[in-house]
């Protein structure tokens, strides 16, 4: 193929790529949000440009053309690298600023989720202090036996059903288990919020039942030091995930001046961002739970101290991070 024919065939695509490249290189617009399809088109254009450059070199086209294509390839590579840096920067800004702001802005849903989660647990604990046998209305004898084994003071690793499991194996399990609970609380908001309410109440009942039973049999010295550390991230994330599910449910029940679909789209966008934040929290939870909480040899006072510190961090994070010039 002659060089002129090659340029006529691909020249328009090169011009389009150069225009998109100039937009990405503009400092004022470098980190603005762009549609995923636009970024995919840019990457596809970059790959095609790399092929064009390789063909031009192989066919011995003019140095002018090769220099032009080579310049676009180098700038394209740098632009993609900057976009990756931009993603990291955006993720950092979301974690340090946007996520706590979103949670504060939706405090009514967070409060409702907290009451649905904590209320049944405290109620069950109070009921068991009067009638301990009602524990079997929530947990089977087999489940109770397993819990007693997991929090036996004689156990080498606390909170594990099988002592042979490694820290890394438990890390993977905690990631899957915690995030799956969070996602179910969020996704079941599509059942007009009923599924989210059920999950919040049920998980609150189970946790309250387990805590009350282990306290009554004298295992509180292993149970509370175990849960206090990672509980700051885990329990908070579960409540916030429940709040996101309630947001979805209310958007469907009371769409206001929007259609239900439009209301769901608007509120769903915010709820999804909140779930992304809770996912990050649950990754931290899994790490703490696998590599710190399960250590049985540490004195309880050390566990309590670290647990109090972690709870303080979570409280300060949601209370103060993202506030600028009196903003919420």
Portion of residues in beta strands equals under 5%
N- and C-termini, Cα separation:
63 Å
Low-pLDDT parts are none
Mean pLDDT comes to 88
> Count of DSSP helices?
10
Query: Helical percent range?
Result: over 70%
Describe the oligomeric state of these chains in a short phrase: single chain
> What summary fits the major beta sheet?
none
Number of domains: 2
Radius of gyration: 27 Å
How are helices and strands ordered from N to C?
HHHHHHHHHH
The general outline is elongated
Short description:
The chain contains ten helices and no strands. The protein has 328 residues and is mainly α.
Task: Give a structural overview.
There is one protein chain. The protein has 328 residues and is mainly α. The chain folds into two domains: 3-94; 106-320, no CATH class. It contains ten helices and no strands. The protein starts with a helix and ends in an 8-residue tail after the last helix. The model has no long low-confidence stretch (mean pLDDT 88).
Write out key terms for the chains shown:
328 residues, mainly alpha, 10 helices, single chain, 2 domains, elongated
Question: Secondary-structure map with pairings?
Answer:
Blueprint: H1 3-25, H2 36-59, H3 63-105, H4 107-130, H5 141-150, H6 167-187, H7 194-216, H8 220-253, H9 260-293, H10 300-320
